């Protein structure tokens, strides 16, 4: 599994401890630079895996997407094709690629179906990362057609949980809010949240997402990409209030700043195909948030990525 230190990789490590008939090998960029072709091939040859779950990505919030679009586009595309080539050259039996709900066109009919991936441009705020993720879909079809490889693509929505990235420069909205609220909970100052709070978001608890990925590894073998995130939807204002309540922060201290970008208004995904196949039951956002915030408070600051 690439991306072993990310929030999804961390969740898979937790699940791996209870799976007795498999050996899981997690690695990060420190063990192998996936943007380097030869390093990637050599590492995969050394491990000789039966399956590769490609979770690694260079990603983050609006600030990272705005300041480093070329880096996001280049590095994510390099990682995708280096992994695919390494899997091909080592005859790996199954390869799973991780796409992103942010790649879908903002004008796509809601809830967003997998077939709309190329029906329009992605949102301008993260266009380079989105295109790097979109290229996985034709790559899957191409490698399956020419090399008869068992490659699949899964589309998560927002993932959060224990071990998330809480760094100011790279965290996404939800972990950024948890850190900001926690670090200011004992002051009297207003806590700023970008935008007016009205956009709607779907967030899936990392343990749930890890279970979805493992189910697909064993049971899904089609060329069509598959939406695998929850369809529970909340406004950013509602999510902010939920975090504040868990941390015993007065909601009146939250200042929604409409002068800041609010991003896409709504991007709810259609997960009906996955749910019909798997009968999967997701945790609620409140359940996942409670566990994540408890973990953050228990591990701050020494064991939290800050």
Brief overview, please?
The chain is built from eleven helices and nine strands. The protein is α/β, with parallel strands linked by helices and 306 residues long.
Written description of the protein model:
The mean pLDDT is 95. The chain is 41% helix and 12% strand. The longest helix has 21 residues, at 69-89. The strands form three sheets. Strands 1-2-3-7 form a four-stranded parallel sheet, sandwiched between helices. A three-stranded mixed sheet has the order 4-6-8. Strands 5-9 form a two-stranded parallel sheet. It has 306 residues and is α/β, with parallel strands linked by helices. It has a single domain (7-299), classed as Rossmann fold, CATH 3.40.50.720. The chain has helices at 7-16, 37-47, 62-67, 69-89, 127-134, 136-147, 173-183, 206-219, 236-246, 272-278, 285-299, and strands at 51-54, 94-98, 151-155, 158-160, 191-194, 200-205, 226-227, 233-235, 254-257.
CATH fold call = Rossmann fold
Based on CA atoms alone, the radius of gyration comes out at 19 Å
What is the domain total for the residues? 1
Task: Report strand %.
Answer: 5-15%
Q: Would you tell me the structural class of the helices and strands?
A: alpha/beta
Percent range of helical residues: 40-55%
How many β-strand stretches? 9
Regions with pLDDT < 50 over 5+ consecutive residues?
A: none
Q: Which CATH architecture? A: 3-Layer(aba) Sandwich
Strand order of the largest sheet: 1-2-3-7
Question: CA-to-CA gap between the ends?
Answer: 23 Å
- By CATH, the superfamily comes out as NAD(P)-binding Rossmann-like Domain
Mean pLDDT: 95
Number of contiguous helices: 11
**Largest sheet, strands/sense/barrel:** 4 strands, parallel
General shape:
globular
Highest CATH level, the class: Alpha Beta
Order of SSEs: HHEHHEHHEEHEEHEEHEHH
């Amino acid at each position: 599994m690439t991306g072993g230190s990310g929030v999804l990789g961390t969740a898979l490590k937790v699940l791996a401890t209870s799976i007795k008939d498999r050996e899981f090998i997690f690695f990060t960029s420190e063990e192998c630079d996936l943007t380097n072709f030869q390093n990637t091939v050599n590492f995969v040859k050394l491990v000789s895996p039966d399956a590769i779950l490609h979770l690694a990505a260079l990603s983050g919030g609006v600030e990272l997407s705005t300041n480093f679009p070329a880096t996001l586009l280049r590095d994510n595309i390099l990682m995708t094709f280096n992994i695919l080539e390494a899997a091909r050259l080592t005859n790996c039996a199954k390869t799973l690629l991780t796409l992103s709900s942010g790649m879908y066109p903002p004008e796509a009919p809601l809830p967003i179906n997998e077939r709309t991936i190329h029906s329009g441009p992605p949102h301008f705020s993260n266009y380079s990362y989105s295109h790097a993720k979109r290229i996985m879909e034709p790559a899957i079809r191409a490698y399956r057609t020419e090399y008869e490889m068992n490659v699949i693509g899964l589309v998560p929505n927002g993932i959060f949980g224990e071990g998330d990235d809480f760094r100011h420069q790279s965290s996404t909205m939800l972990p950024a809010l948890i850190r900001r609220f926690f670090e200011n909970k004992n002051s009297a100052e207003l806590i700023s949240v970008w935008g007016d709070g009205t956009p709607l978001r779907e967030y899936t608890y990392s343990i749930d997402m890890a279970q979805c990925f493992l189910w697909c590894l064993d049971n899904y073998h089609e060329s069509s990409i598959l939406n695998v995130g929850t369809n529970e939807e909340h406004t950013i204002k509602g999510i902010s209030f939920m975090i504040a309540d868990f941390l015993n922060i007065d909601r009146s201290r939250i200042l929604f700043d409409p002068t800041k970008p609010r991003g896409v208004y709504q991007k709810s995904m259609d997960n009906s195909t996955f749910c019909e196949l798997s009968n999967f039951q997701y945790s609620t956002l409140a359940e996942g948030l409670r566990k994540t915030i408890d973990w953050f408070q228990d591990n701050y600051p020494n064991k939290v990525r800050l």
